[in-house]
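Quick illustration, no need to memorize.
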Amino acid sequence: MLGGGIVFILSLLAAAGARSFVVLLVAFTVFFPASGAFVSLTQAELMDAWPDRRPQVMARWDLAGSTGAVAGPLLLIAVLAAGGGWRVAYLALAALASGAWLGTCLCEPHPVPAAAADAPDADAAFWVRLRAVRAALRDWSTVRWALVAVVADLLVDVLTGFLALYLVDVAHLAPPIAALAITVRLGAGLAGDAALVFVLDRIADMTVLRASAVAAALLYPGFLLVPGPAAKLVILAVLSATTAPWYPILQARLYASLPGRSPVAVTLSSAAALAGGLGPLAVGLLAGAFGLSWALSVLVVVPVAVLAGPAAPGPAPDDE
């Protein structure tokens, strides 16, 4: 984790000082595995530290991420207003990451539970760990959480990526309204993450997930069909807050399906994220063939998958 943090900081510094496309490309490429080592393993440490409160802790984690998503543009605005450029913004991020790294150095690792310490894959060699990942891939109760998380992201990050284009080219709204819609989406998502922290202390996580999926199944078609910018912005705000529980709850359930094997959960989650990168490509190909309106209409099945996926029975794993 600490080694990944060092590479994480160095990649930000390299991006800030890049004088060619090749250097910038290498910096961004290295940033991805460094983030996995520094950020994803920190998440795994938190999941191991509070195994009985994984959904609640993951909700706080997601709230921190949403805060960063909103604070990032504000940081860039502040840097530009002060006369700096994007390089200065990356230097500021490197300074903030250095503070987080120093804070990590001061934290004592959480003791490994006895069950995890006695597990055959604890501190094991690479091939033993690889067999543990293979075994997890053959367990439907684990795989389904990773798959549902990938599908759910289509109505979260993937929709955000196409939102401004949809509002301008399909809904024929002015570019400033589209920019406002992105702000509304980020702000409503942040509000939903903040509310989830309190909700999960009172309501079971699966109840929250099912209720949010039902609400999204009604709200998303309404967002596509309702005319007028005001109505679309209101529905978009409610939809963004409604889908906020999806990532933290699904991710917490993935960790819960692999007790004492958080590194395996990190591996599956990272692999699922790479596979999820095909989502924007699929939407883009559909948009090129049938139009963006039809491509985004396909996403109405996402809430159904979020609702039905966790409860779907799966095949029993084959015996060795």
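The domain at 119-312 is CATH 1.20.1250.20 (Growth Hormone; Chain: A;).
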